[in-house]
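> example.struct
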């Protein structure tokens, strides 16, 4: 980054030189606390501000300062070096201030001076800065850096990983420069101090006080005292400790205590020394020691290799730490206070070996082991020493007994030379155990185990006799006071480093409700969470039945394949890897190798993103597996590596070349680093074993899950049986939008800006270019001094070319007292982009004037061809004007639904609408609209019969009624009697689209008619409840007495078909007549009604009364204005069509839309005004053809009025005219005859064709008249 020396003003007005770094990517400016104190700046805001940097590194700043900055007072000599903002930019030094993008681009100049291909000088207000890369050699300069507080904003740029790397290199260098071996071959090391040991204070009194506390414990536990004494006696006998006779300064006293390990085969009690106990200076020994780098692989890497070969072998380094001596000069920092009996004098001792409990102990001991590997010449032994040891545990394997026995022999003979004896030898092969001799001096040299015995191998329980991994979950008693801390402690007791039972343990990890509720670590859990955890953890006892084979290969195998699967859900995501080995005889074996699981983040993340995280986990897990296999010389070619995911979006992302969002791109880059796109394949969800990780599985079920232990069934078959096809997504989400960035440079200005410095000149330039593109022939004719062609749109304008090369209108206003531009306006082509831009500009300048006003203003300076059409199109495409007066269109009227044209019992299919409230004078009952609606429905069915389908308006009242019915139905779902009743009398309730009352026009019209009768009869008088009920019944009878069909013209047909015929066999409002009919007559009447309905009503329903025009159909993605009668038009919201619902005729009448808030809802098309687009201007081909034919007739009529009609008056008949015109194109003599009769020759063949067509029409008219 570029640096600069700037001046900063303190509160007293004095200026100080500071070094600043210029960072165009930072959104804030930062100053170090040391620089702020040096300048005595005053803080004006002490609120804590949280800051996020690269790699999601978060920090905070608690103070804000204000200061003035300035460039240095520099002269500008000839040489550019004297103008550098930071003359010492190539020397490392402290940074005081960081200037972000808020200031960066204000001070950045335009001058640039190239230095190399990758570096240059750029001018700024502070002087010249160096940008880019330069081959600068930095010299090692010893300097002290100002400490940066963890709360400082600059701590974002001081990565913890970088600091750790520096300390690791220092510890490594210290070890290599100080390590040695004594006469017995043991390593001698020195403690790696990070700072001067003089910083340590007195620690003797602290160590004595801790020992006295330990003695009081000994008094209570005599057995512990005896074991402790035996341990310390062993220390003395092995010469690992000696009495401290001198007084050293500085020195450090280590407190110590006992740690019991009941399941240990050798040492039940260990004495642990506390190197973190602070002295009176506040520092402990561990505070001033370097930790050192990790020199051994992780547990998972060792266990993955442990599962590869047939024969397993394990061992343990005896007292590993105590086999490494500490240099005499550093032993004073490992002093202890001890006495065997309380009546003895307290004695001070010095520990002479690497001591467990000090910060550098692990590094020093394991680094000595890897140094042995560096010195060994045998590559196999070198690999085992450096890769198969985890601290002091050996975990290794081999293909044969001979190979493993060779490992034993060489390891034992090699390590004993350096004072590292191996013991506790154990193997899965009984034959190998018999080949290892038992040493009489050490009973623990060889472990003889029975069939059921198990040992711990890096946390996993291994049964050597069966060569299987087991799980042991002890009996668990739930705590009375269960907290979040105890839950994490419980789940971590089940150790599964290679993910053998991930689907079970993930259920305990996905209890994210603890974190979402923000429960503290020691707060007692709610009873619901407590019971769920007890149920889960108790079920883990079933893991004791899980048996997993250690070896995953069939031997010998000719082909090995790796198959990795990934999956994700809202709770978790994970990946699992399977080994597929095939023998030469064709037998196939598939076994689970390893898996990993991750809990989904608390912040909501989309499923495709989580699936991508799972795919990344699978790719990295596969890469780690391949690395470990290569370490064992097991090569798996890339063609035999298969990565599977059930997310088609993730696979499309991986195989796509598009640009995606930062979240997606970063993970895709990592995936493509460790895998290739052709390795990724799609797997159905039900056949994806990783799906068990994402959703979890019961502990009782996992032992029987073939999908988990052996993968999908088709892996046992040939490749031709594997899944090979899937449906690729039509569109990919999270594609990055490419944004253009405007950059400034010192290159010459564009030629257009140099040539045309005035707006008028630039305007003429654009109009000239538009005319050249549109009027090429006309320009050629005018420049040659000729007239334009008669077919040219400029023919009637008397065009000419002015001194600027512009085509202007000649016209007839030469003598008018107006400006020259108004007399001779510039011609604008109708389809030019320049014309459209000018009309748009004038439309906005005139405050969205209409087409007439817009055309009038444009015509003052220009002559736009087809100006009315252009003005109308401009106003039509203006979104602001369209929103002020949106145009709604109704789709073509749909065919009648099946329910309207199918004969069925009256009211079996019913439409209902809410009408009310109706005010009554007394007896008002307070009934909610929903309950009132339900009661009305019950009374209606009691009088008219059961309803099978009920249609209603999609209003809040009916939706609420539906919810009320659904809730009551669910509440009484267990009532058998109610279930039987609802099954027999079930009503299917259907809603029309929301805000679309015209979908239910039939019952809307009935409501309107009922209101008309009520208003006219009641005259606004409040009636009683009984009077109102009576009136409503009378209105009902009147409505049911209306004719359904027009009156017949037959005088003998006196009856008219009414709804009453379907209820009582006749009109309801007519007076009763004597009834002499029989049952047969009544049946005949019903038959006649049905016959009349079958023959009269369909004929009446054929005609369409409105909505006859076919309008533009809605498509997905359309932007429209949603009509809202409660708001003015300019406030109607914009919506996007997300789903269309075409009818049986293919016409869309209802759609699903989404508003700006992300809400989805259904609306009819008549409520939407689609924003105009340029595609709307292009008519349908059929409509265009019809319009052309109409235009032909119109133009033919005009030509007839002009040319033919006057001539008809001079002829007595059409016998001469018609043959002459019809044969005009073929016969030149007849053409002359037509001319001799007074006809002027048409301009072109098109006019001739129009005349022929028109004459044919005249012939037909003439024949009719005659």
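> example.seq
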């Amino acid at each position: 980054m570029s640096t600069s020396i700037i001046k900063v003003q303190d509160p007293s007005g004095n200026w100080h030189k500071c070094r600043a770094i210029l960072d165009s990517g930072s959104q804030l400016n930062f100053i170090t606390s040391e620089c702020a104190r040096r300048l005595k700046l005053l803080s004006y805001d002490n609120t804590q501000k949280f800051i996020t940097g690269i790699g999601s590194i978060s920090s905070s700043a608690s103070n804000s300062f204000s200061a003035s900055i300035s460039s240095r007072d520099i002269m500008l000599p000839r040489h550019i070096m004297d103008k550098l903002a930071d003359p010492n930019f190539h020397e490392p030094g402290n940074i005081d201030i960081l200037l972000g993008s808020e200031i960066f681009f204000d001070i950045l100049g335009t001058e640039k001076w190239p230095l190399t291909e990758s570096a240059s000088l750029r001018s700024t207000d502070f002087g010249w800065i160096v940008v880019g890369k330069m081959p600068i050699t930095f010299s090692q300069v010893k300097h002290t850096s100002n400490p940066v507080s963890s709360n400082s904003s600059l701590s974002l740029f001081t990565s913890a990983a970088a600091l750790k790397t520096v300390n690791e290199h220092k510890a490594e260098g210290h070890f290599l420069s100080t390590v040695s071996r004594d006469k017995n071959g043991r390593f001698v090391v020195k403690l790696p101090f990070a700072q001067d040991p003089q910083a340590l204070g007195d620690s003797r009194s602290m160590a004595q006080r801790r020992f006295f506390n330990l003695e009081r414990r000994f008094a209570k536990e005599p057995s512990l005292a005896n074991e402790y004494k035996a341990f310390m006696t062993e220390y003395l006998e092995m010469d690992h400790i000696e009495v401290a006779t001198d007084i050293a300064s500085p020195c450090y006293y280590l407190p110590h205590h006992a740690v019991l390990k009941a399941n240990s085969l050798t040492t039940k009690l260990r004495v642990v020394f506390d190197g973190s106990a602070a002295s009176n200076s506040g520092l402990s020994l561990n505070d001033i020691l370097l930790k050192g780098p990790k020199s051994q692989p992780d547990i998972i890497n060792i266990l993955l290799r442990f599962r590869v070969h047939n024969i397993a072998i394990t061992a343990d380094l005896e007292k590993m730490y105590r086999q490494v001596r500490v240099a005499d000069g550093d032993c004073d920092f490992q002093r202890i206070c001890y006495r065997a009996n309380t009546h003895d004098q307290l004695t001070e001792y010095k520990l002479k070996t690497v001591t467990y409990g000090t910060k550098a102990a692990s590094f020093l001991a394991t680094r000595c082991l890897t140094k042995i590997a560096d010195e060994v010449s045998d590559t196999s032994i070198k690999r085992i020493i450096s890769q198969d040891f985890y601290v002091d545990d050996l975990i290794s394997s081999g293909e044969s007994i001979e190979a493993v026995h060779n490992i034993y022999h060489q390891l034992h003979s090699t390590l004993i030379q350096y004072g590292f004896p191996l013991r506790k030898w154990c193997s899965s092969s009984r034959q190998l155990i018999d080949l290892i001799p038992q040493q009489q001096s050490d009973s623990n040299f060889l472990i003889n185990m029975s069939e059921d015995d198990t040992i711990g191998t890096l946390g996993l329980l291994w049964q050597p006799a069966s060569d299987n991994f087991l799980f042991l979950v002890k009996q668990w008693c739930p705590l009375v006071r269960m907290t979040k801390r105890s839950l994490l402690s419980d789940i971590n007791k089940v150790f599964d480093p290679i993910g053998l039972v991930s689907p079970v343990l993930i259920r305990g990890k996905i209890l994210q409700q603890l974190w979402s509720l923000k429960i503290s670590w020691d707060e007692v859990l709610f009873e619901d969470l407590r019971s769920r955890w007890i149920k889960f953890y108790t079920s883990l006892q079933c893991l004791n039945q899980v048996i997993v084979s250690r070896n995953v290969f069939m031997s010998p195998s000719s082909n090995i394949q790796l198959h990795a699967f990934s999956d994700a859900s809202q709770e978790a995501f994970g990946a699992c890897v399977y080994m597929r080995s095939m023998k030469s005889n064709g037998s196939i074996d598939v076994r689970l190798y390893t898996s990993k699981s991750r809990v989904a983040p608390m912040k909501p993340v989309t499923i495709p993103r989580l699936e991508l995280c799972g795919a990344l986990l699978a790719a990295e897990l596969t890469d780690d597996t391949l690395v470990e296999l290569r370490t064992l010389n097991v090569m798996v070619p890339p063609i035999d590596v298969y990565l599977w995911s059930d997310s088609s979006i993730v696979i499309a992302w991986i195989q796509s070349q598009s640009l995606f969002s930062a979240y997606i791109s970063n993970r895709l880059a990592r995936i493509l680093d460790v895998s290739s796109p052709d390795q990724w394949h799609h797997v159905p969800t039900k056949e994806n074993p990783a799906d068990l990780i994402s959703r979890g599985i019961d502990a009782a079920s996992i032992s029987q899950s073939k999908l988990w232990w052996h993968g999908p069934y088709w892996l046992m078959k040939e490749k031709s049986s594997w899944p090979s096809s899937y449906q690729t997504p039509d569109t990919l989400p999270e594609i990055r939008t490419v944004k253009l960035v405007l950059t400034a440079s010192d290159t010459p200005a564009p030629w257009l800006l140099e040539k045309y410095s005035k707006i008028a000149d630039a305007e003429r330039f654009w109009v000239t270019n538009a005319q050249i593109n549109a009027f090429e022939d006309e320009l050629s004719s005018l420049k040659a001094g000729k007239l334009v062609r008669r077919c040219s749109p400029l023919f009637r304008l008397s065009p000419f070319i002015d001194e600027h090369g512009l085509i202007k209108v000649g016209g007839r206003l030469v003598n008018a007292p107006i400006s020259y531009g108004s007399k001779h306006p510039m011609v604008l082509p109708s389809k030019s982009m320049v014309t459209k831009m000018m009309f748009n500009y004038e439309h906005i300048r005139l405050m969205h004037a209409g087409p007439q006003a817009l055309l009038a203003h444009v015509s003052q300076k220009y002559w736009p061809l087809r100006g009315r059409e252009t003005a109308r199109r401009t106003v039509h495409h203006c979104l602001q004007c369209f929103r002020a007066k949106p145009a709604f269109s109704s789709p073509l009227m749909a065919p009648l639904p099946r329910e309207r044209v199918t004969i069925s019992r009256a009211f079996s299919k019913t439409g209902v609408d809410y009408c009310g409230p109706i005010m009554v004078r007394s007896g008002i009952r307070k009934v909610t609209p929903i309950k009132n609606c339900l009661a009305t429905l019950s009374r209606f069915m009691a009088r008219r019969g059961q309803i099978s389908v009920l249609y209603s308006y999609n209003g809040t009242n009916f939706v609420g009624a539906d919810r009320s019915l659904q809730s009551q139905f669910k509440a009484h779902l267990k009532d058998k009697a109610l279930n039987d009743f609802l099954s027999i009398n079930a009503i299917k309730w259907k809603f029309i689209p929301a805000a679309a009352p015209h979908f239910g026009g039939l019952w809307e019209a009935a409501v309107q008619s009922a209101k008309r009768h009520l208003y006219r009869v009641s005259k606004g008088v409040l009636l009683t409840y009984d009077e109102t009920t009576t009136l409503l019944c009378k209105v009902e009878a009147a409505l049911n007495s209306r004719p359904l069909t027009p009156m017949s013209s037959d005088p003998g047909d006196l009856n008219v078909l009414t709804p009453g015929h379907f209820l009582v066999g006749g009109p309801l409002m007519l007076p009763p007549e004597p009834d002499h009919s029989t049952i047969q007559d009544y049946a005949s009447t019903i038959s006649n009604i049905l016959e009349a309905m079958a023959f009269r009503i369909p004929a009446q329903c054929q005609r369409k009364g409105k909505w006859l025009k076919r309008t533009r159909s809605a498509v997905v993605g359309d932007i429209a204005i949603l009509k809202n009668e409660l708001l003015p038009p300019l406030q109607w919201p914009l919506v996007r069509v997300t789903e269309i619902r075409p009818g049986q005729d293919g016409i869309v009448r209802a759609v699903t839309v989404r508003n700006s808030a992300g809400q989805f809802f259904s609306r009819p098309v008549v409520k939407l005004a689609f924003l105009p687009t340029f595609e709307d201007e292009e008519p349908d081909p059929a409509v265009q053809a019809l319009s052309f034919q109409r235009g032909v007739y119109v133009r033919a009529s005009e030509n007839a009025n002009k040319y033919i009609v006057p001539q008809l008056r001079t002829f007595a008949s059409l016998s001469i005219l018609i043959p002459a015109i019809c044969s005009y194109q073929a016969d030149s003599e007849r053409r002359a005859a037509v001319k001799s009769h007074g006809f002027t020759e048409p301009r072109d063949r098109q006019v001739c064709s129009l005349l022929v067509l028109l004459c044919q029409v005249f012939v037909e008219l003439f024949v009719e008249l005659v």
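> remarks
The chain has a mean pLDDT of 77.
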